[in-house]
Amino acid sequence: xFDGLAEKLQETFRKLRGKGKLSESDLNxxxxxxxxxxxxxxxxLPVVKEFIQRIRERSLGAEVLQSLTPAQxxxxxxxxxxxxxxxxxxSSIRFSASGYAVFMLVGLQGGGKTTTAGKLALHYKxxxxxxxxxxxxxxxxxxxxxxxxLAKQIDVSFFSLEEGNSxxxxxxxxxxxxxxxxxxxxxxxxxxxxHIDEDLMEELREMKGEIAxxxxxxxxxxxxxxxxxxxxxxxxxxxGLTGVILTxxxxxxxxxAALSVRKATGCPIKFIGTGERLDxxxxxxxxxxxxxxxxxxDMLSLIEKAQATVDEEKAKELEIKLRKQDFxxxxxxxxxxxxxxxxxxxxxxGMIPGLGGAKQIKKIRDELDEKEFTYLEAMINSMTQEERRxxxxxxxxxxxxxxxxxxxxxxxxxxxxxxxxxxRKLFKQLSxxxxxxxxxxxxxxxxxxx
Length: 450
Known about the structure:
Distance between the termini: 21 Å
Strand order of the largest sheet: 3-2-4-1-5-6-7-8
Order of helices and strands: HHHHHEHEHEHEHEHEHEEHHHHHHHHHH
């Protein structure tokens, strides 16, 4: 996500920092590089022009170019303007005073509406809501079955009607059903088309008029670049969207859609899809995304992920074990799995400030084989209970036996044992983080897999 753009911008500002004092020509040269990077990231031209002009106007003041840290001042301005383009702050989700809401999901075919419906249901189920997934796409083959399978997978209620009922009828009856069953979040998966047409819009307008949804979300594939902006503009003009959800953002190294949609349409991005898993849906925080693009990390998101995925009781047990020097290889394996549950390691690394920017994260990603965790588990499973409890006894012959049993080399076993020692400190920091004991711990955190 944003790899290409982040790498280019961070390199441009690295050059600026190396100059000490800045001249107007230095600034113009940097802005030319920024402009090119944004265009290559598929950010729409009008947005790029306004963005560059705003930075130039704000940066040419004496308080910037004549300051002791002019490059830092320019980066601060770029960070603020990037955030402003995407909407300044996280947009809130609308619920009624009683906490009830209807979400209507619209968009073209292939944008990911059905999967996003499941992701939204899981996201709000974790927050204590009682969602109802509604299959109102009666045109796409297997759309109803796909949504039903997702509902069973995450254990939420599902609603559909037999063939012959119109999408509007399905939506109306679903809302009535939800009221009768005490369900407080209705998520309606509507039909899409391969292109925008009047029949589609008329059906969606009628549905919106009948059910009065709190949110009308456009689900759009971020990988289609500037077309995402055009689609958002068309749907917003026809339906009055309340928000956009960008899917497949993890597969788009450019990120132009995320930087263009709000500015070009006035419609806020409310969620982003960051992976295929049903829990890979994140609220969109413009300030955090801007900071990550500029290599500043994203401490708040990392803390939230840690608190959401690290079991509090296990964290307390871990703290006790670490204090007593009773941290075993079984604990090590369990903690690796908890780190994995926070999402792809590359995303986690991107949230850590001061790690070295996009290039360093990319280097780590390239060097880290995702199978590494599987290999670690195989080696630990090849050990005896005694060896897992007391790794200090694992010497020459034992290491050879573990290597043979797991299909790895003795060097791999040696590296595992070294990583285990390094991890004592890491997992102590993660457990303290999950218990809310201070974000400063993360600044010195070192991952044992690097």
